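seq as requested:
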Amino acid sequence: MTAPLLAIRNLRAAYGKIEALKGVDLEINPGEIVALIGANGAGKSTLMMTIFGRPRARSGQIMFDGRDITDVATHEIARLRIAQSPEGRRIFPRMSVAENLQMGADATFANENDRAATLARVFGLFPRLRERLAQRGGTLSGGEQQMLAIGRALMSRPRLLLLDEPSLGLAPLIARQIFDAIRTLNQKDGLTVLIVEQNANHALRLAHRGYVMVNGLITLKGTGAELLERPEVRAAYLEGGRRG
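struct tokens:
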């Protein structure tokens, strides 16, 4: 049996006295897309950030490819080729598209040919970025900014990509392009993805497996198809209930 690429065990994290993660268990196998769904404030984004070292876990364990990274510094986590496209995109608005992409580039590229090939892959997924190379990030549309945020993460050639709310605030057509790009990265490049997504229907249809988080705890897990059929999931996230 293949060992998980990411394994989280009994993870707890807090902001001051407020405990946001209350003993989370989650794992992702190589080559999987795993969706994490739940209401706003459930702790999904906190889990993403804790994997990346901010905030620090209070207890529990985060294992990546067999290595304990629970207490590893954020910049060292990035060097292990874990990349994050955070909620709100957080691009550099005064920098050009080209400069934003350069900020995501891995310093360990063997040569410029490798860097150019990675950039070409990003442009293949998001041709609009090539057209906007000299434009400042802050002047892009919301969809273009999301493409840039994902493209910047891909420039580090990640083994694990963390996507936090990639379709938030986007028109349906643009959101569909984003989901199509994620599927392509997984199917053609074998990229492993953990996605937090407010559109539970799209996320679970995209994902191999999914987890439901409620108040800092995982309450349900299963394949994407299984969760889509669970009545409690449908009532809370697919039939007019809260999404987050």
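DSSP finds ten helices and ten strands in the chain.
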